[in-house]
Automatic annotation (TrEMBL):
Belongs to the sigma-70 factor family. ECF subfamily. It comes from the Bacteria. The keyword Transcription regulation applies. Residues 102-154 form the RNA polymerase sigma factor 70 region 4 type domain. The lineage of its organism: Bacteria, Pseudomonadati, Pseudomonadota, Alphaproteobacteria, Hyphomicrobiales. Residues 9-72 form the RNA polymerase sigma-70 region domain. This is RNA polymerase sigma factor. Keywords: Sigma factor, Transcription, Transcription regulation. InterPro entries: RNA_pol_sigma-70-like, RNA_pol_sigma-70_dom, RNA_pol_sigma70_r2, RNA_pol_sigma70_r4_t2, RNA_pol_sigma_r2, RNA_pol_sigma_r3/r4-like, WH-like_DNA-bd_sf. Gene3D superfamilies: 1.10.1740.10, Winged helix-like DNA-binding domain superfamily/Winged helix DNA-binding domain.
Amino acid sequence: MSVEPELLALLPRLRRLARTLTGSAATADDLVQATCERVWAHAEDWVPGTRFDAWAFRILRNQWIDWARRSRTEGYPEPVDERTDLVGEWGEKRAMDKLILDDVRKAIDALPAEQREVLLLVCVEDFSYGEAAQVLGVPIGTVMSRLARARKRLNSAVEAA
């Protein structure tokens, strides 16, 4: 006996139950598909005159239980893009950051030595202008002008890259 008409009429209700059980539209669709496959494979087991919907719901529920047991050890299959609670980085952002950092590193390496020194002391080592001037043995105004020129060159180099 063909179960096709009953199964087609039951699809919205199967999906509603699956959505309730899984909490995910995609997982519910997978569960309904697996249920339909099982119903088709075992259509000869359904006894005409009994409730087809109860039989199909029991198959869906058993599929769900099997899936839930498997997922305890395998984890839940979910699209990563829909997860907001995952810790980690997007590979694209990390790659872009590395490219930008490489551009900045090259631009710093291209600076004259006196500008690199000032940049390192003030921006990396957090020296004040006065402390940097003492380390380099130059007036504070020289530190300020070298730093300004270094920043301007870096900005131009990074924008050009």
